[in-house]
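Input record (one chain):
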Amino acid sequence: MLMTMLRRKASLFRSFLALEASGGIVLLLCAAAALFIANSGWSSAYFHVLGSYVAGLSLLHWINDGLMALFFLLVGLEIKRELLHGQLRSWADRALPGIAALGGILVPALIYLGLNLGSSATLRGWAVPAATDIAFALGVLALLGSRVPVSLKIFLTALAILDDLAAVVIIALFYTAGLSPWMLGGAALVVVVLFALNRFGVRSLWPYLVLGALLWVLVLKSGIHATVAGVLLAMTIPSRDRSGGKLAGSPLYRLEHGLHPAITFLVLPVFGFANAGVSLVGVRWESLLHPATLGTTAGLFFGKQIGVFLAVWLGTLAGLLRRPAGASWAQIYGVALLCGIGFTMSLFIGLLAFPDSPEFQDAVKIGVLAGSGLAALFGALLLRLAPAGKQPA
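The corresponding structure, as predicted from the sequence alone:
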Protein backbone atom coordinates (compact mmCIF):
# COMPACT_ATOMS: atom_id res chain seq x y z
CA MET A 1 0.00 0.00 0.00
CA LEU A 2 2.74 2.43 0.98
CA MET A 3 4.74 1.64 -2.14
CA THR A 4 1.63 2.26 -4.28
CA MET A 5 1.17 5.67 -2.65
CA LEU A 6 4.82 6.54 -3.22
CA ARG A 7 4.57 5.56 -6.89
CA ARG A 8 1.52 7.79 -7.28
CA LYS A 9 3.35 10.70 -5.66
CA ALA A 10 6.37 10.01 -7.87
CA SER A 11 4.26 10.25 -11.01
CA LEU A 12 2.80 13.58 -9.89
CA PHE A 13 6.25 15.03 -9.26
CA ARG A 14 8.16 13.49 -12.17
CA SER A 15 7.60 16.25 -14.71
CA PHE A 16 8.00 18.95 -12.04
CA LEU A 17 11.30 17.54 -10.83
CA ALA A 18 12.63 17.14 -14.36
CA LEU A 19 11.80 20.74 -15.23
CA GLU A 20 13.25 22.17 -12.02
CA ALA A 21 16.38 20.04 -12.30
CA SER A 22 17.08 21.13 -15.89
CA GLY A 23 16.40 24.73 -14.89
CA GLY A 24 18.91 24.45 -12.06
CA ILE A 25 21.63 23.44 -14.50
CA VAL A 26 20.79 26.35 -16.84
CA LEU A 27 20.76 28.74 -13.87
CA LEU A 28 24.17 27.47 -12.78
CA LEU A 29 25.63 28.02 -16.25
CA CYS A 30 24.24 31.58 -16.41
CA ALA A 31 25.61 32.41 -12.96
CA ALA A 32 29.03 31.06 -13.96
CA ALA A 33 28.92 33.11 -17.18
CA ALA A 34 28.07 36.27 -15.22
CA LEU A 35 30.94 35.69 -12.81
CA PHE A 36 33.33 35.13 -15.72
CA ILE A 37 32.20 38.25 -17.63
CA ALA A 38 32.31 40.44 -14.52
CA ASN A 39 35.97 39.54 -14.14
CA SER A 40 36.93 39.81 -17.80
CA GLY A 41 37.57 42.60 -20.28
CA TRP A 42 33.80 42.80 -20.87
CA SER A 43 33.03 43.76 -17.27
CA SER A 44 32.53 47.47 -18.04
CA ALA A 45 30.01 46.70 -20.78
CA TYR A 46 28.24 44.18 -18.51
CA PHE A 47 27.72 46.67 -15.67
CA HIS A 48 26.95 49.53 -18.07
CA VAL A 49 24.13 47.61 -19.77
CA LEU A 50 22.60 46.55 -16.45
CA GLY A 51 22.70 50.17 -15.25
CA SER A 52 21.18 51.66 -18.41
CA TYR A 53 17.67 53.11 -18.05
CA VAL A 54 14.54 51.98 -19.89
CA ALA A 55 11.18 53.71 -19.28
CA GLY A 56 12.37 55.30 -16.06
CA LEU A 57 13.94 52.21 -14.48
CA SER A 58 17.37 50.64 -14.89
CA LEU A 59 17.53 47.32 -16.71
CA LEU A 60 18.61 45.66 -13.46
CA HIS A 61 15.60 47.22 -11.72
CA TRP A 62 13.25 45.83 -14.40
CA ILE A 63 14.76 42.39 -13.92
CA ASN A 64 14.63 42.41 -10.13
CA ASP A 65 11.23 44.10 -9.73
CA GLY A 66 9.50 43.16 -12.97
CA LEU A 67 10.64 39.74 -14.13
CA MET A 68 10.98 38.50 -10.56
CA ALA A 69 7.36 39.45 -9.92
CA LEU A 70 6.51 36.72 -12.44
CA PHE A 71 8.72 34.32 -10.49
CA PHE A 72 6.86 35.18 -7.29
CA LEU A 73 3.56 34.72 -9.12
CA LEU A 74 4.67 31.17 -9.95
CA VAL A 75 5.84 30.65 -6.36
CA GLY A 76 2.42 31.78 -5.13
CA LEU A 77 0.63 29.45 -7.55
CA GLU A 78 2.77 26.50 -6.42
CA ILE A 79 2.14 27.31 -2.76
CA LYS A 80 -1.62 27.55 -3.29
CA ARG A 81 -1.75 24.33 -5.31
CA GLU A 82 0.25 22.36 -2.76
CA LEU A 83 -1.77 23.72 0.18
CA LEU A 84 -5.14 22.96 -1.44
CA HIS A 85 -4.52 19.91 -3.61
CA GLY A 86 -0.97 18.65 -3.21
CA GLN A 87 1.67 17.47 -0.79
CA LEU A 88 0.77 20.12 1.81
CA ARG A 89 -3.01 19.76 1.81
CA SER A 90 -3.29 18.43 5.39
CA TRP A 91 -1.57 19.37 8.64
CA ALA A 92 -0.05 15.89 8.77
CA ASP A 93 1.51 16.46 5.33
CA ARG A 94 2.83 19.88 6.38
CA ALA A 95 4.37 18.78 9.67
CA LEU A 96 7.66 17.25 8.46
CA PRO A 97 8.64 19.85 5.80
CA GLY A 98 7.14 22.65 7.91
CA ILE A 99 9.19 21.95 11.04
CA ALA A 100 12.28 21.28 8.91
CA ALA A 101 11.79 24.59 7.06
CA LEU A 102 11.39 26.43 10.38
CA GLY A 103 14.65 24.98 11.69
CA GLY A 104 16.31 25.84 8.38
CA ILE A 105 15.23 29.47 8.74
CA LEU A 106 15.92 30.10 12.41
CA VAL A 107 19.39 28.56 12.77
CA PRO A 108 20.97 30.28 9.72
CA ALA A 109 19.47 33.61 10.81
CA LEU A 110 20.86 33.18 14.33
CA ILE A 111 24.30 32.27 12.98
CA TYR A 112 24.29 35.33 10.72
CA LEU A 113 23.21 37.60 13.58
CA GLY A 114 25.82 36.10 15.89
CA LEU A 115 28.61 36.78 13.39
CA ASN A 116 27.39 40.33 12.69
CA LEU A 117 26.74 41.61 16.21
CA GLY A 118 29.84 43.75 15.97
CA SER A 119 28.71 45.29 12.68
CA SER A 120 25.32 46.98 13.05
CA ALA A 121 25.37 48.07 9.39
CA THR A 122 25.18 44.47 8.16
CA LEU A 123 22.56 43.12 10.60
CA ARG A 124 19.80 43.76 8.06
CA GLY A 125 21.06 40.81 6.06
CA TRP A 126 19.95 38.25 8.68
CA ALA A 127 17.41 36.66 6.29
CA VAL A 128 19.87 36.15 3.41
CA PRO A 129 21.00 32.63 4.43
CA ALA A 130 17.46 31.54 5.39
CA ALA A 131 16.42 30.61 1.83
CA THR A 132 16.68 27.44 -0.28
CA ASP A 133 16.93 27.49 -4.08
CA ILE A 134 14.64 24.68 -5.23
CA ALA A 135 15.91 24.68 -8.82
CA PHE A 136 19.57 24.29 -7.85
CA ALA A 137 18.86 21.74 -5.11
CA LEU A 138 16.71 19.56 -7.38
CA GLY A 139 19.32 19.93 -10.12
CA VAL A 140 21.88 18.31 -7.82
CA LEU A 141 19.43 15.55 -6.91
CA ALA A 142 18.80 14.90 -10.61
CA LEU A 143 22.51 14.26 -11.16
CA LEU A 144 22.38 11.57 -8.46
CA GLY A 145 19.49 9.74 -10.13
CA SER A 146 18.05 6.74 -8.30
CA ARG A 147 20.55 7.03 -5.44
CA VAL A 148 18.04 9.35 -3.75
CA PRO A 149 14.57 7.94 -2.91
CA VAL A 150 11.53 9.71 -4.33
CA SER A 151 10.28 10.42 -0.79
CA LEU A 152 13.31 12.65 -0.16
CA LYS A 153 12.74 14.54 -3.42
CA ILE A 154 9.14 15.16 -2.36
CA PHE A 155 10.35 16.23 1.10
CA LEU A 156 12.87 18.69 -0.36
CA THR A 157 10.30 20.12 -2.77
CA ALA A 158 7.70 20.66 -0.03
CA LEU A 159 10.33 22.15 2.29
CA ALA A 160 11.53 24.58 -0.38
CA ILE A 161 7.95 25.67 -1.17
CA LEU A 162 7.30 26.45 2.52
CA ASP A 163 10.70 28.15 2.60
CA ASP A 164 9.59 30.39 -0.29
CA LEU A 165 6.37 31.22 1.57
CA ALA A 166 8.39 32.26 4.62
CA ALA A 167 10.67 34.37 2.40
CA VAL A 168 7.66 36.23 0.98
CA VAL A 169 6.43 37.01 4.49
CA ILE A 170 9.90 38.15 5.56
CA ILE A 171 10.20 40.46 2.53
CA ALA A 172 6.78 41.98 3.21
CA LEU A 173 7.42 42.51 6.94
CA PHE A 174 11.10 43.39 7.17
CA TYR A 175 12.20 44.81 3.83
CA THR A 176 9.54 47.45 3.33
CA ALA A 177 10.00 51.19 3.90
CA GLY A 178 8.35 54.54 3.10
CA LEU A 179 4.80 53.25 2.73
CA SER A 180 2.30 55.24 0.65
CA PRO A 181 -1.22 54.92 2.16
CA TRP A 182 -2.89 55.91 -1.12
CA MET A 183 -1.04 53.33 -3.18
CA LEU A 184 -1.57 50.69 -0.51
CA GLY A 185 -5.28 51.48 -0.50
CA GLY A 186 -5.41 51.19 -4.28
CA ALA A 187 -3.59 47.86 -4.15
CA ALA A 188 -5.98 46.58 -1.47
CA LEU A 189 -8.96 47.59 -3.63
CA VAL A 190 -7.55 45.69 -6.62
CA VAL A 191 -7.04 42.60 -4.45
CA VAL A 192 -10.68 42.82 -3.29
CA VAL A 193 -11.83 42.99 -6.93
CA LEU A 194 -9.64 39.99 -7.80
CA PHE A 195 -11.15 37.92 -4.97
CA ALA A 196 -14.61 39.03 -6.11
CA LEU A 197 -13.87 37.72 -9.62
CA ASN A 198 -12.90 34.39 -8.07
CA ARG A 199 -15.99 34.35 -5.85
CA PHE A 200 -18.35 35.00 -8.77
CA GLY A 201 -16.87 32.20 -10.83
CA VAL A 202 -14.83 34.08 -13.43
CA ARG A 203 -12.55 31.44 -15.01
CA SER A 204 -10.96 33.48 -17.83
CA LEU A 205 -7.38 34.40 -16.98
CA TRP A 206 -7.31 37.75 -18.79
CA PRO A 207 -9.22 39.82 -16.15
CA TYR A 208 -6.88 38.49 -13.46
CA LEU A 209 -3.75 39.24 -15.48
CA VAL A 210 -4.84 42.77 -16.45
CA LEU A 211 -5.73 43.61 -12.85
CA GLY A 212 -2.50 41.89 -11.77
CA ALA A 213 -0.47 44.30 -13.90
CA LEU A 214 -2.27 47.24 -12.23
CA LEU A 215 -1.62 45.64 -8.83
CA TRP A 216 2.11 45.39 -9.65
CA VAL A 217 2.29 49.13 -10.43
CA LEU A 218 0.44 50.07 -7.23
CA VAL A 219 2.55 47.80 -5.04
CA LEU A 220 5.74 49.10 -6.71
CA LYS A 221 4.77 52.65 -5.77
CA SER A 222 3.44 51.73 -2.32
CA GLY A 223 6.80 51.02 -0.70
CA ILE A 224 6.26 47.26 -0.47
CA HIS A 225 8.51 45.35 -2.84
CA ALA A 226 6.77 44.88 -6.17
CA THR A 227 7.33 41.11 -6.23
CA VAL A 228 4.79 40.71 -3.41
CA ALA A 229 2.15 41.61 -6.00
CA GLY A 230 2.87 38.33 -7.76
CA VAL A 231 2.03 36.31 -4.64
CA LEU A 232 -1.11 38.37 -3.93
CA LEU A 233 -2.32 37.78 -7.49
CA ALA A 234 -1.62 34.05 -7.22
CA MET A 235 -3.81 33.74 -4.13
CA THR A 236 -6.82 35.00 -6.10
CA ILE A 237 -6.50 32.67 -9.12
CA PRO A 238 -9.25 29.98 -9.08
CA SER A 239 -7.92 26.51 -8.36
CA ARG A 240 -10.91 24.56 -9.67
CA ASP A 241 -12.40 24.14 -13.14
CA ARG A 242 -15.81 25.41 -14.26
CA SER A 243 -17.55 22.44 -12.68
CA GLY A 244 -16.01 23.39 -9.33
CA GLY A 245 -14.17 20.10 -9.11
CA LYS A 246 -10.84 19.14 -10.60
CA LEU A 247 -7.60 21.12 -10.43
CA ALA A 248 -6.70 20.11 -14.02
CA GLY A 249 -8.20 22.65 -16.39
CA SER A 250 -8.51 25.32 -13.71
CA PRO A 251 -7.08 28.83 -14.26
CA LEU A 252 -4.42 28.11 -11.61
CA TYR A 253 -3.34 24.92 -13.38
CA ARG A 254 -3.25 26.58 -16.80
CA LEU A 255 -1.34 29.62 -15.60
CA GLU A 256 1.17 27.62 -13.56
CA HIS A 257 1.93 25.24 -16.42
CA GLY A 258 2.12 28.13 -18.87
CA LEU A 259 4.53 30.10 -16.70
CA HIS A 260 6.75 27.29 -15.48
CA PRO A 261 8.97 26.81 -18.56
CA ALA A 262 9.38 30.57 -19.10
CA ILE A 263 10.28 31.18 -15.46
CA THR A 264 12.62 28.20 -15.29
CA PHE A 265 14.49 28.75 -18.55
CA LEU A 266 14.24 32.52 -19.00
CA VAL A 267 13.37 34.57 -15.91
CA LEU A 268 15.61 32.80 -13.38
CA PRO A 269 18.61 32.46 -15.73
CA VAL A 270 18.31 36.17 -16.61
CA PHE A 271 18.13 37.02 -12.89
CA GLY A 272 21.14 34.84 -12.17
CA PHE A 273 23.11 36.35 -15.03
CA ALA A 274 22.25 39.90 -13.92
CA ASN A 275 22.99 39.42 -10.23
CA ALA A 276 25.73 36.81 -9.88
CA GLY A 277 28.29 38.99 -11.63
CA VAL A 278 30.51 40.26 -8.84
CA SER A 279 33.97 41.59 -9.57
CA LEU A 280 36.66 39.71 -7.66
CA VAL A 281 39.35 42.25 -8.55
CA GLY A 282 41.09 43.20 -5.33
CA VAL A 283 39.30 40.51 -3.35
CA ARG A 284 41.64 38.77 -0.91
CA TRP A 285 41.18 35.84 1.43
CA GLU A 286 40.52 38.38 4.17
CA SER A 287 37.45 39.47 2.21
CA LEU A 288 35.81 36.20 3.22
CA LEU A 289 35.94 37.49 6.80
CA HIS A 290 33.69 40.43 5.99
CA PRO A 291 30.79 40.10 8.47
CA ALA A 292 28.14 39.86 5.72
CA THR A 293 30.19 37.33 3.73
CA LEU A 294 31.06 35.24 6.76
CA GLY A 295 27.51 35.31 8.12
CA THR A 296 26.02 34.35 4.76
CA THR A 297 28.51 31.55 4.07
CA ALA A 298 28.27 30.06 7.56
CA GLY A 299 24.50 30.52 7.67
CA LEU A 300 23.96 28.68 4.40
CA PHE A 301 26.53 25.93 4.84
CA PHE A 302 26.39 25.25 8.58
CA GLY A 303 23.08 26.84 9.59
CA LYS A 304 20.88 25.11 7.02
CA GLN A 305 22.23 21.61 7.59
CA ILE A 306 22.08 21.98 11.37
CA GLY A 307 18.63 23.57 11.41
CA VAL A 308 16.93 21.19 8.96
CA PHE A 309 18.50 17.96 10.23
CA LEU A 310 18.14 18.83 13.91
CA ALA A 311 14.46 19.68 13.42
CA VAL A 312 13.76 16.37 11.65
CA TRP A 313 15.80 14.31 14.13
CA LEU A 314 14.30 15.88 17.26
CA GLY A 315 10.79 15.74 15.83
CA THR A 316 11.21 12.07 14.97
CA LEU A 317 12.78 11.30 18.34
CA ALA A 318 9.80 12.93 20.07
CA GLY A 319 7.38 10.90 17.97
CA LEU A 320 5.91 14.02 16.31
CA LEU A 321 7.31 13.33 12.84
CA ARG A 322 7.98 10.34 10.62
CA ARG A 323 11.07 10.45 8.45
CA PRO A 324 10.69 10.06 4.67
CA ALA A 325 10.03 6.45 3.65
CA GLY A 326 13.04 4.48 2.48
CA ALA A 327 15.53 7.21 3.46
CA SER A 328 18.48 6.64 5.79
CA TRP A 329 19.57 9.27 8.28
CA ALA A 330 22.71 9.83 6.20
CA GLN A 331 20.57 10.59 3.14
CA ILE A 332 18.38 12.95 5.16
CA TYR A 333 21.53 14.73 6.31
CA GLY A 334 22.69 14.98 2.70
CA VAL A 335 19.40 16.66 1.72
CA ALA A 336 19.76 18.98 4.73
CA LEU A 337 23.13 19.99 3.29
CA LEU A 338 21.54 20.69 -0.10
CA CYS A 339 19.09 23.05 1.62
CA GLY A 340 22.09 25.35 2.01
CA ILE A 341 21.95 26.09 -1.72
CA GLY A 342 20.26 29.46 -1.35
CA PHE A 343 21.25 31.06 -4.62
CA THR A 344 18.25 32.84 -6.20
CA MET A 345 16.26 33.86 -3.13
CA SER A 346 19.38 34.60 -1.07
CA LEU A 347 20.74 36.93 -3.74
CA PHE A 348 17.33 38.57 -3.99
CA ILE A 349 17.01 39.19 -0.24
CA GLY A 350 20.58 40.49 -0.19
CA LEU A 351 19.64 43.14 -2.75
CA LEU A 352 16.66 44.17 -0.62
CA ALA A 353 18.67 44.22 2.59
CA PHE A 354 21.37 46.54 1.21
CA PRO A 355 19.75 48.52 -1.62
CA ASP A 356 22.16 51.46 -1.34
CA SER A 357 25.40 49.63 -0.57
CA PRO A 358 27.18 47.94 -3.50
CA GLU A 359 29.95 46.95 -1.07
CA PHE A 360 27.60 44.96 1.15
CA GLN A 361 25.76 43.54 -1.87
CA ASP A 362 29.04 42.21 -3.24
CA ALA A 363 29.95 40.81 0.19
CA VAL A 364 26.61 38.98 0.29
CA LYS A 365 27.05 37.69 -3.27
CA ILE A 366 30.45 36.21 -2.41
CA GLY A 367 28.92 34.61 0.68
CA VAL A 368 25.99 33.20 -1.31
CA LEU A 369 28.30 31.76 -3.97
CA ALA A 370 30.66 30.28 -1.36
CA GLY A 371 27.97 28.89 0.94
CA SER A 372 25.80 27.52 -1.87
CA GLY A 373 28.82 25.97 -3.60
CA LEU A 374 29.98 24.22 -0.42
CA ALA A 375 26.47 22.99 0.33
CA ALA A 376 26.07 21.59 -3.20
CA LEU A 377 29.49 19.92 -3.19
CA PHE A 378 29.30 18.25 0.21
CA GLY A 379 25.59 17.45 -0.10
CA ALA A 380 26.12 15.69 -3.43
CA LEU A 381 29.18 13.83 -2.11
CA LEU A 382 27.35 12.60 0.99
CA LEU A 383 24.29 11.50 -0.97
CA ARG A 384 26.49 9.63 -3.42
CA LEU A 385 28.24 7.72 -0.63
CA ALA A 386 25.37 7.39 1.86
CA PRO A 387 23.82 3.94 2.36
CA ALA A 388 20.19 3.61 1.32
CA GLY A 389 17.50 3.36 3.94
CA LYS A 390 15.27 0.36 4.51
CA GLN A 391 12.64 0.17 1.78
CA PRO A 392 9.04 -0.01 3.00
CA ALA A 393 7.22 -3.28 2.48
